[in-house]
Write a structure and sequence with these properties.
By secondary structure, this protein is of the alpha+beta class. It is 41% helix and 22% strand. α1 packs across α2. It binds zinc ion. The site of zinc ion (ZN) has 5 residues, from α2 and α3.
Length: 850
């Protein structure tokens, strides 16, 4: 089937009037679409889904309308309008009357519900049109290249607020308890960026950023949680106007918190929608991670106002450019806002997550063919966002940040109000840098995977060689090569030497002035490749880990564990390496260490768990003791977060009884005096209590989840319900994911957490097998597929067979290559288990005696 619309009719302007009825969850609409007809025709085809179109007619300026017949093709999501007379080339007005449903699937024009403090239910109507769901809100040419101007009017009951992309220009009472709110014309933009939100919402006072008013909207009673988002929102808007060298393209910015929201947020021009926990927060009661997430998401969406909204990809294969760029810019802005957060170091965690997928045979190139809407959903993944952002960061560092910025400015200037392709960005960057960009970048963007760079001693210097990294491929080399901007730093007698080179062949030798104490490759950490050091070099580097940068230590741990997963380093050697990091002070390095140990925990047999727990306690003890339980005067926000991370890992993965007992004392104190527990420690305490708790804690947490005062509190208690260990409690949590107690936006992620934990994975998998059809119907499509991300934790040959049979028998397709990736992750884990079971058992049994 061809999913692209014919280009014989091109929309220029939509005048839309929509009237949602929140009580019956329906809406009625009228669209007057000004179109250019390119050739004589009798038929117009446009997109429509789940809409009833009552009438369609076309007219020329002042002419008599020609009424057409309407055929809806639900499978193709199209309306075919056939007219009895020929429509000649030129400008026409297409008039449509239609009705639709405010659905519960969190896409298109949909219904979100919430209860107020008194327990009364309320409804909001909101939109989520990306990627291809504007067609559920109004008939349209629902492809990003069909940009048009939108003039929107919303007809709503007088007591409700209505928000769209632009400022209100008219608000007139209709006399029957309703009002018509008309919004200013938008810029020329794509349909997926149109937004309508209607409900009992309240807004903060505006913050003025230059001439642009910025506000946060939320359900009544939550305005006091908007301060943090306003601060980063205002900073980001100002920062991007400076960076891009172009004023904000709209006339206002509204940030709206929607109680039910499938993604994290959506960059509708001027009306950015968020899930509540990505926007609203009580700053004083939030952990660093929770604040960082909000800063990231707000900065990301504001970055899109130019990159994505003002200049848009021509088709969905270019979505990576949109998302990778917004992710890159988000980091740049947050790093400028709070340099003490060291955001580029934490980005190492995201880069490693992308590498975990991109090391699979079932990966895809960043830019990938997208034919149908289902595959488009699959494009919103770590490769698009995180690999994309990583390669842009690598290029920025390679070219020079100021040159890169000039290229971006040139690109936006050339293509504003229009669409562009990846090659257009390379052209602009190349013009700014006076060098061809595709030569360096094509290998990273249009080909799958990434290189493994092997480093060996060579005289006084080193020899580098490259081949593709693959978890399952081991030592095989299919000949794929990249142009790798390598930065190398060596410690020699009189200090450090740095070498920069473009490794574009099989090998390169790098002479050094003298024999080095140690050599670190991928110095600075922004290269999207892994490094394998020959044994003597690894020993020296690991022994000097305190002298290299945190991101370099992070990569050392992350790369080494990947080598162990790929069978290129014995797992026990990796576990030995972790002992070198007991004095580690960086939070991200600890994330790499504890997540690797958690992976090992999923692979080993139950009887070895005690040994792993002892190992975890040994590795973490010194660092946790150094930080203690109470915040100290002179420490940074990152230290405070690290304290929470370490305590959590000790109390859960390490099953540390002393930590568990202390956590109970701390929680009892919290009950008496909430201010007495640090905001970074509290989430850890809750997780620890769940892992070591029983029915009474479960009942309390479930109640606190329901009565939560902030989105963060709600999330902590919700995920704690997935962290208990008793089957009868876990069964209750599973039940909550299908009985409506957990919002459909969150339920798939709770399932993912339950599938990932060694205590609940078996139960959760059985539950998924019986309930997946109900889940597929209830959960938003984009989130439903993500619950299966937990499947690779089902590490045993029996489970693997069962998992494969389940997906095959039920013909489940998750779009793109998603399912193949999950299955291959599982294959990698089972192969690791089969290879390492014996040596790990021997190694871990020695740990118990510590
Ligand atoms: Zn985005």
């Amino acid at each position: 089937m061809d999913y692209r619309l014919p280009t014989t009719v091109v929309p220029r302007r939509y005048d839309l009037r929509l009237e949602p009825d929140l009580a019956t969850a329906t809406f009625a609409g009228e669209a007057v679409i000004t179109v250019d007809v390119e050739t004589t025709l009798t038929e117009i085809v446009l997109n429509a889904a789940e809409l009833q179109i009552q009438s369609a007619s076309v007219a020329r300026n002042g002419g008599v309308p020609i009424h057409g017949s309407i055929t809806l093709d639900e499978a193709a999501e199209r309306a075919r309008l056939v007219f009895p007379a020929a429509i000649a080339p030129g400008e026409w007005r297409l008039m449509l009357r239609f009705t639709g449903v405010l659905n519960d699937r969190l896409h298109g024009f949909y219904r979100s519900t919430y209860k107020d403090a008194a327990g009364q239910p309320h409804t909001i109507a909101a939109t989520q049109f990306e990627a291809t769901d504007a067609r559920r809100g109004f008939p349209c040419w629902d492809e990003p290249a069909f940009k048009a101007v939108f003039g929107v009017t919303l007809v709503v009951p007088e007591h409700l607020a209505a928000v769209s992309n632009t400022a209100v220009v008219r608000d007139e009472p209709l006399g029957n308890g309703r009002k018509a709110i008309a919004f200013a014309d938008t810029i020329r933009m794509s349909t997926y960026l149109v937004a309508f939100v209607v409900g009992e919402l309240e807004a903060t006072d505006p913050v003025m950023v230059g001439r642009t008013p910025l506000k946060v909207w939320c359900v009544p009673g939550k305005k006091q949680l908007a301060r943090f988002a306003l601060a980063i929102g205002a900073f980001a808007l100002d920062f991007f106007e400076g960076y891009y060298g172009l004023p904000y393209p709209g006339d206002k910015v509204d940030l709206l918190a929607i109680p039910d929201f499938a993604a994290g947020a959506m960059e509708n021009l001027g009306a950015i929608t968020f899930r509540e926990n990505a926007l609203l927060v009580d700053e004083a009661a939030a952990s660093h991670s929770e604040l960082e997430r909000i800063a990231d998401v707000v900065a990301h969406e504001v970055a899109h106002m130019w990159f994505g909204d003002l200049v848009t990809m021509t088709w969905w294969n270019g979505i990576w450019l949109n998302e990778a760029f917004a992710t890159f810019m988000e980091l740049l802005a947050v790093d400028a806002w709070k340099p003490e957060w060291k955001r580029w170091v934490t980005f190492g965690v995201s880069r490693a997550a992308a590498m975990a997928i991109d090391g699979l045979e079932a990966t895809r190139p960043i830019e990938f063919e997208v034919r149908n809407p289902h595959d488009c959903v699959a494009m919103f993944d770590l490769l698009t966002y995180e690999k994309g952002a990583s390669t842009l960061r690598m290029l920025e560092q390679h070219l020079d940040p100021a040159v890169f910025r000039d290229g971006v400015r040139l690109y936006l200037e050339r293509h504003r109000f229009a669409n562009a392709e990846t090659t257009d960005l390379w052209k602009a960057l190349g013009d700014a840098a006076r060098q061809p960009i595709p030569a360096v970048m094509d290998g990273w963007i249009f080909k799958p995977g990434y290189p493994l760079v092997t480093v060996e001693p060579d005289g006084t210097g080193v020899k580098l060689s490259q081949r593709r990294f693959s978890y399952l491929g081991g030592e095989t080399d299919a000949g794929q090569r990249w142009r790798i901007p390598v930065v190398l730093r060596a410690s020699v007698k009189h200090g450090y030497v740095e070498r920069r080179l473009l490794l574009d062949g099989d090998t390169a030798t790098v002479p050094l002035p003298a024999k080095a104490d140690w050599v670190v490759v991928n110095s600075g950490g922004s290269g999207f490749y892994r490094v394998r050091y020959a044994s003597p070099l690894l020993k020296k580097l690991a022994g000097s880990a305190g002298k290299i940068a945190p991101i370099e230590r992070f990569n050392l741990v992350s790369d080494s564990f990947a080598l162990a997963q790929a069978g290129l380093m014995p797992a026990t050697e990796f576990l030995d390496l972790t002992a070198r990091f007991r004095a580690e002070t960086d939070r991200n390095v600890w994330t790499a260490l504890t997540s690797s140990l958690a992976y090992v925990n999923r692979v080993i047999a139950d009887e070895q768990r005690g040994g792993l727990e002892a190992l975890v306690r040994h590795r973490l003890a010194d660092a946790a003791e150094r930080l203690g339980w109470e915040p100290q005067e002179d420490e940074t926000e990152l230290d405070r977060q690290l304290r929470g991370d370490l305590l959590r890992a000790l109390g859960t993965l390490g099953n540390d009884e002393a930590v568990q007992s202390r956590a109970r004392t701390v929680y009892a104190r919290y009950r008496e005096d909430e201010g007495s527990v640090d905001a970074n420690v509290l989430p850890a305490v809750i997780a620890i209590l769940a892992a070591s708790g029983e029915e009474s804690e479960y009942a309390e947490f479930r109640d606190r989840f329901k009565r939560a005062r902030t989105p963060q509190e709600e999330q902590r208690y919700l995920y704690a319900l997935a962290g208990f260990r008793q089957p009868e409690l876990l069964r209750q949590t599973l039940e909550m994911t299908v009985n409506g107690e957990v919002r459909s936006q969150d339920a798939p992620f709770v399932i993912r957490a339950l599938l990932t934990s060694v205590d609940s994975r078996g139960l959760a998998w059985d539950f998924v097998k019986t309930h997946w059809q109900a889940m597929a119907q209830q959960y938003p499509e984009s989130a439903y597929r993500r619950m299966y991300e937990g499947v690779p934790a089902l590490v045993s040959p029996e489970w693997e067979r069962d998992v494969r049979a389940f997906f095959a028998d039920n013909k489940i397709d998750l779009g793109g290559r998603t399912l193949q990736q999950y299955l291959e992750h599982l294959r990698v884990a089972v192969a690791f288990q089969q290879r390492e079971a014996e040596p790990l058992a021997a190694y871990l049994s020695r740990q118990k005696s510590r």
